[in-house]
Fold:
Amino acid sequence: MSERKVLNKYYPPDFDPSKIGRNKRPKDRQQVVRLMAPFSMRCNTCGEYIYKGKKFNARKEEAQGEDYYGIKIFRFYIKCTLCSAEITFKTDPKNTDYVAEHGASRNFEPWRDEAAAADEDKLARLEEEEYDPMKQLENRTQDAKHEMEVLDALADIRTRNARNERVSVEDLLQRVGRQAAEEVTEEDLEKLRGEEEDEQLVRKVFSKIPAGPATAPRADDDAEEPQRDGQRDGQRDGEADGEAEEAAPKQITVKRKAPSDAPEPALASLLSESARAALGSIKPPGPPPAKKKKDGGKPGIKMGIKKKV
Structure:
């Protein structure tokens, strides 16, 4: 049995290759290919839109009698996805693009017009420079000026980037903090003014010093606390309307913080005389009653033997 995958085949000695007939293929032979729509188009029969990139099973053939400097032009046949009408388009080697030929119209694409306008401007400029040397000199001067502007802008960007790279994070935060401090809005100013007014009012109420000779605070002032509270309320109400301020006493107790090295006062010194007398009249409690001892150290549970009847 011969091998299935052979490299050398047997040719008999009487083999004549000229007797083998060749199959002549027609020049307009079509080939089935799988492709994607090269541009967005609209069917002329039903108005269906076919977007760019949609896949089709197309028939491909060579356009007879059409070429571009020896480059062959191919034609493709597809069918509309809605009405199955035949649509044809072919290659355009001149513009490296495709051209809608029959059955559909290509959608408007603005960038194609812009590119065509730019090409036309370039050709017109070349024609002007060819016949007018002064125009050519002006164009070269404008190009050089534009190039210098571009280089200057690029140098500025590089300098700015290098400066930013040298700046540390701490310097950047400090700079941002300064800018934020400088950019103080009107609302912030109003808040600061309100806080200052509140502080002034607090100082005015709680930091008054008596007009007469100053007296040291006494420890037996607990009995007079309700009267002082009433005086303080009267003073606050008097500052609001102005008349009660004259009738209120001028002395106000100022709270001061004791020094840290001062000894802690005794508990009795903080009480008034009446409280001390009341505490003195109370007799101290006597010693607690002694516990009863158990007899002989025996357990408290009595156990007995019940006699039988």
Q: What stands out?
A: The radius of gyration is 55 Å. The chain has a mean pLDDT of 77.
